[in-house]
Amino acid sequence: MNEKKDFLRAIVEADLKSGKIEEVVTRFPPEPNGYPHIGHAKSIVLNFGIARDYHGRCHLRMDDTNPETEEMRYVEAIKDAIHWLGFDWGEHFYFTSDYFERLYDYAVQLIKMGKAYVDSLSEEEIRQYRGTVTEPGRRSVYAERSVEENLDLFERMRQGEFEEGAHVLRARIDMASPNMKMRDPLLYRIRHTPHYRTGSAWHIYPMYDFAHCLSDYIEGITHSFCTLEFENNREVYDWILETLQVKPPRPHQYEFARLNITYTVMSKRKLLELVKGGYVSGWDDPRMPTIAGYRRRGYTPESIVNFCEMIGVAKANSVVDVAQLEFAIRDDLNPKVPRVMCVLSPLKVTIVNYEGEEELDASYYPPDVPKEGSRKLPFSKEIYIDRDDFCENPPKGYHRLTPDQPVRLKHAYIIACEEVVKDDAGNVVEIKARYFPDSRSGSDTSGIKVKSAIQWVDAKKGKRVEVRLYDRLFKTENPQGVEDLNPDSLRIVQNAVVEPSVIEEKPDERFQFERIGYFYADPVDSTDENPVFNRIVSLKDSWAKKSKKKESPKQAKPRPEPKPRPAQKEERPPLSPDQQRHFDRFTEELGLGAAVADTLARDEALSDFFEKACTFADNPATLANLVANEVARELKNSAPDTLRFGPEAVARLAKMIDEETISTKIAKQVFEAMAKSGENPETIVEAKGLKQISDPDVIGPIIEQIIADNPQNVAKYKAGNQKLLGFFVGQVLKATGGKANPKVVNELVAEKLKR
Ligand code: ATP
Ligand code: MG
Question: What percent of the chain has pLDDT over 70?
Answer without folding.
Answer: 95
